[in-house]
Amino acid sequence: MSRHWLRLPGFVLYFAFAARLWAGGSGLNVAVVVNQNSTNSVQLGNYYCEQRQVPPQNLLRTSWTNGNVAWQTSDFQSVILNPLLAMLSAQQLTNQIDYVLLCMDFPYRMTATNGANSTTTPLFYGFVPDGAAPGAGLPTSCSLPNASSNAYAGSELPFRSTAPGTSRTNFLAMMLTSSNLDQAELVVDQGLASDDTFPTQTVYLTKSSDVARNIRYTLFDNAIFDTRLRGNYTMVRTNADPFYSFGSILGLESGWGNPYVVGNSSFVPGAAADNLTSFGGQIFENSGQLDILELLNLGAAGSYGTVIEPCAYLQKFPSPQVYFYQARGFSMAECYYQSVTNPYQGLLVGEPLAAPFALPAAGTWLSLPTNAVLSGTTNLSVQFTAADAYHPLQQVDLFVDGTFAQTVTNIPPAANNVLYVTLNGFPTNYTVPASASIESVVSNLTARLNRTTYTNATKVKAIAHGDRIELQSFDSSKAGAQVSVSVSTSAGSAPALTTFLSASGSTFLDTIAFGMRTYNVFYAPSSGSYLLLTITKTNGTVVTVGATNSAGNTSISALTQTLVNNVNATPALQGPDGVTAEDFINYDANVPPAAQFNLYAISAGWNAAQVQANLSGSSPIVIQPSGTQTLEQNLPDLQPRNHLYVTAGLTNLPLTFAFNTTTQADGYHELTAVVYEGSHVRTQQHATQIVRIQNSTLSATFTTLYGGSSTWVGATLQFSVAANTNNIAKIELFSTGGSLGSVANESTAIFSIAGTNLDVGLHPFYAVVTASSGKQYRTQTTWIRLVNTEAPFPVSLTAPPPVLSWPATVGSSYDILTTTNITNGFQLSTTLTPSNSPAVWTDTNPPAPQRFYRLRTSN
Predict the structure, then answer these.
(1) Do 394 and 648 contact (CB within 8 A), yes or no?
(2) pLDDT score recorded for residue 102
(3) Which of 44, 261, 345, 621 gives the lowest tally of CB atoms within 10 Å of its CB?
């Protein structure tokens, strides 16, 4: 077991490293995959790498030419999976990459003889074959195979700590695509612009009149309850069909079968939006249904849709909890994969790192100036400060040139820290044992809160969710405001307090949900058959409503619909203590024929749900459930609720640690200290500095012979590398995507690189020189932006003689036009193609009383 000393003023803490967990997510943890045969794909990958600061070695170039709709599993494996795994192994990124982003012009659906998956799914947890068909006439894809279950769903755990399936690929995979490059780049911009903005716009959960696709409404209240406890923003459930006119919104969850647009609504940066329907994920086919890319076009940063007929299993679609996870600070990809229990047929599109509710720390290197010279084993110091007391900092890692180098510290919940909880005036406490994790603390504290003697006193049930404990009051005689919560923590006998407990509020929160009960009615009625609903209201008043089958009618749905209509037309049931019948569904085609409806309390709250209902009927009708029922089928959504959160770490984290520079090549390196928030959200913050390592006399110079900070993409870049010794085994040039070429057994080398091989974007260029002894030197990095359009630029003129200078795009051609009389028009004087920037041109024409100049690009 490796150990590390963390020195703080006044005392010394000793910590054992826990297993390394990345999570949270940044460009360091993303592998970007581009299709080298698609200019759009390559340019989009370059754009994403620049915007999210993805290290150049994290980009994989691969090749695909057969369209963007469907491919076979063998195609996927040879084009993406196998090259990706090989690249991660070769670049020593296997344990660093959590996210995989596929950039345009790859197929989105993968097919095999035993089923179809989205292309993102096999990267998440392997290919999932279809199970047996669930019934006659239904497609095999309607099944819900056991192997498709996602253990990460609903976990509220760091991604790497919960294997979501049997596959070892296990990436949070998303596809970034659109009908055009500009629109795809706007999705990136929307995600980036959302970070740490804490938007206050509303999320709308819409229950449409499309009964086959509005089925997620049963999950709305749970998500709303949790989000109300977070207090970040408003989540609203509404009965609404497209076209929606919600204005500027943070999210939308809908269910509708026909194509539609979202009215005059638009999404703020970081929004998640999706529609439950069969073919929303068929993004480049005319499915006759809403294409999820339309939601991205309206500003959403992420969406999800199925690529094949999934049938209406809730588990195949995102739960509205996606918005609660987002409110906690999880990234877009983490939110969606946590919200879908069986995602194998679902395509996830958008910007994976978008996190509008993440709250990063602040951090900086101490006494480490730019280009500081380091040698041997040296001490480095960094300072990180948490955003607030609720977001302590747990782990710090060091990355060198974008690759993980070492864990500096990982602060677990300290053994013998004590957590105190008082519920309803009844206190208890929990002492943290040795080798505890946040998850184990939550699990054990939950067990303590659920001990029979304690729950008998508190009338509160506890449920563990990763680093969160959900508290539900089961005392119907008390409103939420009457159920008190008090929590605190102490160091106990530990040398420091590193375990923290917080509550969402000092009292429980009451529900705004309506009590409900679902009734199923089976078998065709006979002439004179009847249904009778007896309602006992909370004041003891009894109301009966019936419906009798007419002669010759054999439709159970018609009889049930009559009952529903009669319930809603009965005056005695229309007051605040009454009920309403909704969500009628016709199942006459089933065997046996059936109908379904929901009975709701008219008023919100647990007390209103105490209405008693008894639905009975004459033979041959069968009713489920039978007997007297309260409207508490959704009991967890009705009981007053609170949340407890367990975190670990310190809010002030000054670190001094040893760095062995001899493990790195001599020369220039980028050191990045990454701190992780001490919850399962694990929001990252970076402190970055360029240093120079010098442990030998080996050095080299890197010179740009042709190219500048801005260079025409059609140009051929040229670089010179010269070592200071002749004993050189290899000189290798690197840029976006890794190695661009090498020269063996030469002390100097010239590299020519066609700009079109890298395409438009910002690219780093550096060389690694390897001596015959094995020692290496890494040169300084030169950044060059390859462009295909010229932005407006200033031109300066000095005289005599007349000299024009401007910040040129190297490799781009410029026409210089002159005239002595502006009314006579300009004449081309020369065309110049600069090899560096700024460009300079001197007018050697004979002097004139006056001369006017124009400059234009000519390529």
Answers:
(1) yes
(2) 98
(3) 261
Whole-number Å distance between alpha carbons of 121 and 100: 11
CB 409 within 8 A of CB 684: no
> How far apart, in whole angstroms, are the C-alpha atoms of residue 702 and residue 724?
12
pTM higher than 0.85, yes or no?
A: yes
For β-strands 852-857 and 814-819, DSSP reports them as antiparallel
3-state secondary structure of 287: coil
Over the stretch 595-625, which tens digit does the pLDDT of each residue have? 999 999 999 999 999 999 999 999 999 999 9
3-22+359-411+650-692 and 696-787 in the same fold:
yes
Tokens of 766: 């550096």
Q: Please list, in sequence order, all residues whose beta carbon lies within 8 angstroms of the beta carbon of residue 655, skipping any fewer than 6 positions away.
A: 6, 381, 382, 383, 384, 396, 408, 409, 673
Q: Which CATH class is domain 3-22+359-411+650-692?
A: mainly beta
From CA 639, how far away is CA 473, in angstroms rounded?
Answer: 6
- Mean pLDDT, the chain, as a whole number? 93
What pLDDT score does 263 carry? 73
Residue spans per domain, the chain: 3-22+359-411+650-692, 27-350, 418-511+641-648, 514-633, 696-787, 796-857
Q: Is the pLDDT of residue 164 over 60?
A: no
**d(C-alpha 38, C-alpha 208), whole Å:** 40
Give residues with Cβ within 8 angstroms of 856, minimum separation 6.
Answer: 814, 815, 817
The rounded distance, in Å, linking the Cα atoms of 571 and 590 is: 34
Tell me what pLDDT residue 163 has.
Answer: 61
For residues 705-726, average pLDDT: 95
| Cβ-contact 220, 276 below 8 angstroms | no
Which of 101, 118, 117 has the alpha carbon at shortest distance from 172? 101
The lowest-confidence range among 165-179, 405-419, 780-794, 834-848 is 165-179
Confidence of residue 10 (pLDDT cuts 50, 70, 90): very low
Which helix (H) or strand (E) segment is 672 a member of?
strand 666-677
Looking at domain 696-787, does it have CATH number 3.40.630.30?
Answer: no
**Spatial CA neighbour of 207 closest among 248, 162, 247, 252:** 252
Question: How many CB atoms are closer than 10 A to CB 213?
Answer: 20
Burial of 257 (0-12, 13-18, 19+ CB in 10 A): middle
pLDDT tens digits for 755-813?
Answer: 999 999 999 999 999 999 999 999 999 999 999 988 788 999 998 889 999 898 998 88
For residue 109, how many C-alpha atoms fall within 13 Å in the half-sphere facing its CB?
19
- Between helices 332-339 and 321-328, what is the axis angle to 10°? 140
What is the residue-wise DSSP string for 500-550?
A: EEEES-SB-B----EEEEEEEEESPPPTT-EEEEEEE-TTS-EEEEEEEPP
Whether omega for the bond prior to residue 318 falls within 30 degrees of 0, making it cis, is no
460-465/468-473 β-pairing: antiparallel
pLDDT digits (tens, 9 = 90+) for 193-235: 999 999 999 999 999 999 999 999 999 999 999 999 999 889 9
Residue 191 pLDDT > 60, yes or no? yes
Average pLDDT of span 369-390 = 97
Beta bridge partner(s), residue 272: 251, 302
Distance CA 183, CA 146 (A): 38
With tokens 């009338």, the residue in question is: 459
